[in-house]
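The instructor's notes for this session suggest beginning with a concrete chain rather than abstract definitions. Hand out the sequence below and ask the class to guess, before any prediction is shown, which regions might be ordered.
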Amino acid sequence: MIPDNPDLWDAAALNEVLAYKGGAKQAWDNTDLTGPWLNAMRNSLNSQIWGFREPNFLCVSATHGPAQLALYDQEMWDKYQLAKIAGGDVTRNTFILVPLASAHDPADVQSMEGAFSSQDNSIVVLQRRGVVFMACHNAIWEHAERLAATGQNPDNLSVGRIAAELANHLVPDVVLTPGAVATLVNLQQAGFAYSR
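After discussion, reveal the predicted structure:
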């Protein structure tokens, strides 16, 4: 339940992020699945790169709570019927789809339908631009508990086995942390500006 050994999270990747010295850096505390979190990070990235001329700006999303659902692949959404706990009108993991705007000419940074516009918000697109998404082990465990308690557990797995399966089905390149809130402390100590 409580990860107490770096072998249980992506310690090497997390250490690389914490050691980043390439330029300005920002850590987002993201919990609201249906809120403007992807748009806010895209706006920050655009402003830092083109407005403040910080091409090496590093944006990190400490993703937890309901927003963590966006970090599971569609296979987990289907198997565990994650739409039932996502709320609102979310029926599948659209947060990992690549919008059509991604195909626009990246040289046209001012296009309102282009690759850097609000039409191009997704986890995968932001990852391609260098944003690091961090998953919370605690949120995984809590999701596993909820799935077991509500019967959204087609294989009748234990909470620990559900949690392991969810952790193994994070979107590629998501960094698993022992806990997002605790990791935010470490990110701030490493010089990341905190944003919510």
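Then share the key points. Strands lie at 25-30, 58-63, 132-136, 175-177, 193-195. The chain has a mean pLDDT of 95.
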